[in-house]
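Hello,

Following up on my earlier ticket. Below are the two sequence lines again, exactly as submitted.
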Amino acid sequence: MARTAVSRRLGNRLRWRTARLTDGRVESRAARTLVFEVPGWPGHLAGQHVDVRLTAEDGYSTQRSYSLASASDGESVELTVQRVSDGEVSPYLTDELAMGDVVELRGPVGGWFVWSPEQKEPILLVGGGSGLVPLMAMIRMRRAAGSRTPFRLVYSIRSPEDQLYESELRQDEPGLDKTYVYSRSAPPQCPRPPGRITASDLSSTGWPPDFEPTCYVCGSTGFVEKASGLLVALGHHPGRIRTERFGPSE
Amino acid sequence: MPIVSRGFHGRARDTQRKLPPGQYETTDFPVLSAGPTPTVDLDEWEFTIRTETGARRSWNWAQLTALPSQTSTVDLHCVTKWSKFDTEWQGVSLDVLLEDVETSADYALVHSYGDYSTNVPLEDLLNGQAWIAYRYDGEELAPEHGGPARLLIPHLYLWKSAKWVHSIQLLVEEERGFWENIGYHDYGDPWREQRYQGD
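Thanks for your patience. The regenerated structure is below:
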C-alpha cells in the first residue's frame, strides 16, 4: 500500500542498492518506463528522485538523476526515462537494459519538489515533455491515498506521439482536470492551435491566484522559465511555485 | 564494490580532464532553481554583509561594479551530476568585500533575492576561492544563471554558488540553508562526493 512517510535514517536512505529490472513499458516513441525491484527500499514522497549508477566491465562508472514515476509501493520503484539520442546513459536504459539486469540506485532524494496527501490546498501541475514524470507520481500518490485534493494538470507536449501515460490519463478521475497544450502539432479535434504555452493556457485552466494553489512546474529550462514567469505575472506568489528543471535532458 | 551493469560501456573516456566521482561532462549550461527566476532591478539591487554583532556593510550596483574585479576560468560541478569545464567569470573577490569586516565568525549563511539560502564555512569564501560574479563568458550574467550577480564558489557543488545573491550573514554557529535543511550536505566537496547529509 502507499506510504506517505519516508525513512529519515539517512545512512539507510543513502546506501547504494541493487535494483533489478522486473518490467518495462513503452510510454512514447522515445520514453520507456522501467520497473525495478529494490530490496530494502524505504519508500518515497511523490516528486522525489533517485540517483542511478551504471558501472561498466572495466570499472568505469557514471551517475544520473531520474524522477520517480510511481507512488511509493513497497520495494517496487518505477522510473520513466526519455531517450536522448546522443546520451551516454538514457539509450542504454531505454533500449538495452533487459529483464533481470541490474543497476545501482540510491535515494529517495529531494524534499522540496514533493506533494504529500496532507496538503489540503488546490494543486496546479504544469509539465513540459518528460517533465510530467514527477507530476505523474503526485497524481498516482493522490489516487493511491484516496485524496480528494483538487488537482489541475496543464501538460505541454510537442505532438500527440510524445504523450506519456496516454491510456492512464485518458481515464476520467474525479477532482483531476487535464489540459493538453501542443506546441508543434495538435490532434484534429483540438481547438487550440499548436504553440508554446501562454498566459491564457494557465489562467483559463489553472487556478485563480486567490485560491492560493501550490504550483509545481517541471520541464526543460526554457519551459520552466516561461511557465513559472507566466504564473508569477498572473499573480501567483513566487513562494508557492516550485520548479524542477531537467538540465541536459538525459 | 560497484555492481556491473551488463552491456553498459559508457562513453569513450577523456583521460585529459579529471572529473569528480559520479560526475559527467556537459558543454551546455544547465539551470537548477527551486522556484521562479526573480526579477531584480539594478536601481534597487544591493549586496550586504552582516556580522554576528549586527554590523552591516552594503554596496549598490554602481559601488560593486566600481570595485576591482577579476576574471577567473573555473570548472563547475553540479550535484545533479553534470560538470562543465573552463567557464569564464568576472566578478569581485570576496577577499575585497570582506577585507574591512571585523568578525570572529566561522560560518556564513548566504541569502538570495527570492528567499534562497545556503551555508558555507567563512574560510571557503576567502583566499581567492569565491567571488560575487556579474559577468559570464564575456556577457552580462543572465537571470536564469543568477544575474544580475551570483556567488561563485567553484570548489564546492554549484548549489553553494547562490544565484541572485543579496547578502552574506556571518555566524558564530553554523545555520543550514535551503537545500541543506532538506538533506543536502553542509560542505559539498565534489571531490569527496559530499552530495547529501551523511555522505
